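User: Batch of two.

Assistant: Item 1 of 2:
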Amino acid sequence: MIKNVHGNTVDHLGQAILAGRYPPGTSIPPEPLLCTELGVSRTVVREAVKSLIAKGLVTTGPKVGTRVQASEHWNWFDPDVIVWQSQAGLTPGFLRDLQELRRVVEPAAVRMAAERATPEDISEIESAFEGMRRAVEEGGDYVRHDLRFHQGLLRGSRNRMIIQMSKALGALLRTSFEISTTRADGPRKSLPLHRAVIDAVIAKDPTGAEQAILVLIDGARDDIETVLASRRRLPRLNEPVRMLRSA
């Protein structure tokens, strides 16, 4: 998606903050300098700063300018923040926080899905699984379908808060899936594990569904720990998704 001047300005400043160019507690440059550096108007800079305030990255006040907030104030459910972190470099701590979050949210949501999912929810999850299977067998974008699968499960919970969270979790989940699929034959081995989740949801077996999703989540955690231990470069969200090749 092509962004406008406002979007590009927000991206530039957000990336600079996440990359440490403007560390927490320091001020970003004043408006006149940013206008000159970025070639934009003061109105654009002011609107960009408002966006960064909404994302928790900066705060403003009289005589202190626009200061960068400590990272615990940043909105880690904002897709832009996740992308900027990925561009700056994913850290082991960030990835472990993500896996812990998944272990808290997804099992509970899948239990609800086993009790509440509609036929339409099941159809969407089945369609996502079929896309994953085709990507493994014929090549293609496995991660996109994997993301659809997990977001479909969250929507199947029929809990409005969790459904809203599923939108925010998209970039976080993609980060995890991008890394998991770097393991040799990882997607192929995960297919029966995903199938077990669907089957338990269809059977309206909350306990079985919860156990099946925990197997998936813990497997992803092990994959990520293996990749971290190998010191391989982690994927970045601004790079093209790695396409699986047909067998």
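Item 2 of 2:
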Amino acid sequence: MTTSSIANATVATQANVYFDGKCVSHGITLADGTKKSVGVVLPATLTFNTGAPEVMECVAGSCEYKLSGTETWIRSHAGDRFSVPGNSSFQIRVTEPYHYICHFGQ
């Protein structure tokens, strides 16, 4: 099931812009202190590094991703999630805008 809204959250009004504008996100903090980000990746192939474990949730569009240390690209569509270990990285390949929620520390 795709998350369509997040209740009771504080949103950072300044966007995080990465990769020359190919990824734009906003940080959000829930009432319990949980941190997430919501954003969009525009058509590109990008590599993201992680500190804490992350769960990437596709809310619209699609992508292919490849976790560090693997050779297989996996397709993700709206409603799908994939987990990325902490202190790791993943590549993402996008051909249409990919809208996501990143759940940190999961």
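The chain is about 0% helix and 60% strand.
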